[in-house]
Amino acid sequence: MRTIILALALIFGLGNSNDEIQSLIDNEEYSQAFARASELAATGDPSAHNWLGWLYEEGKGIEIDLPLAVYHYRIAAASQENHASWRLGVLIDQGQAAGTLEEAVALFKSVAEKEYTNAIVSLAVMQATGRGTSQDYPAALESYMRAAALGDGGGLRGVGIMMYLGQGLEPNKEEAAAWFLVSAARGNPDGENSFQLVMSELEGIDPTIIAKRAKEIAANLELEVNITILDEDDPATLR
Questions:
Q1: Helix H segments across the chain?
Q2: Count of C-beta atoms within a 10 Å radius of residue 38
Q3: Using the 8-state DSSP alphabet, how is residue 60 labeled?
Q4: Measuring CA to CA, how many Å separate 69 from each of 63, 64, 101?
């Protein structure tokens, strides 16, 4: 039996962020990060307001407070801070912040233009579902592909989803599985879950076929991935 082993690379970061606060966050010194972000936000620093929004949204170093998270995200988004604009759009879309779906789409577009991949993926979701904009599968696929080309695991998974569901193109579970595998190899846990689900539906297929196709996709996009095929009948064999 052949199985596929992935080396996942998880990446954390909020885009336009203060290096000092980033360092504190990386060290899980959330209370200190909150204090420093508060100091800098008082000077009008949009990046600090973005960090405060994230800290309030996630409840890091302070209790969760979505209204305050939205308040700080709005200040940062007014200066087109990438992460804040994206998160504000997501919260509007989820009904957790005041605003229309059209405003959410506008926020996503504003930072998608700066190649902020989270926003590109969220824009693709809106285009695919017709929320805040007309439903447009070709535009959604183009957005997902754009994010995928930038190495975003969510964009790679989005391409796979459209192929799996046959949204604007013929359904193809094997091709979808390959895209999900690349997404997983880029560190996207949802991509890994989708890959495992589809593989359970593709009974009897040799995972070597999917892995080879995944490597082709990654090579075409010039993305680094680590996908290894292990033959469990011969543990010494790695491909």
A1: 19-26, 30-41, 46-58, 66-78, 82-93, 101-112, 117-129, 137-149, 153-165, 173-185, 189-201, 207-220
A2: 16
A3: S
A4: 11, 8, 19
- Rounded to whole angstroms, how far apart are CA atoms 119 and 3? 34
Q: How far is CA 6 from CA 111, 189, 196, 231, in A?
A: 31, 11, 12, 14
Q: What is the pLDDT of residues 113-162, one digit of tens each?
A: 999 999 999 999 999 999 999 999 999 999 999 999 999 999 999 999 99
Q: What is the mean pLDDT of residues 66-71?
A: 98
From the list 139, 143, 146, 181, the residue with the least C-alpha distance to 160 is: 181
Q: In this structure, are residues 230 and 2 in contact, taking their beta carbons and an 8 Å threshold? A: yes
User: For 13-36, what is each residue's pLDDT tens digit?
Assistant: 454 447 899 999 999 999 999 999
Could you tell me which residues are beta bridge partners of residue 63? none
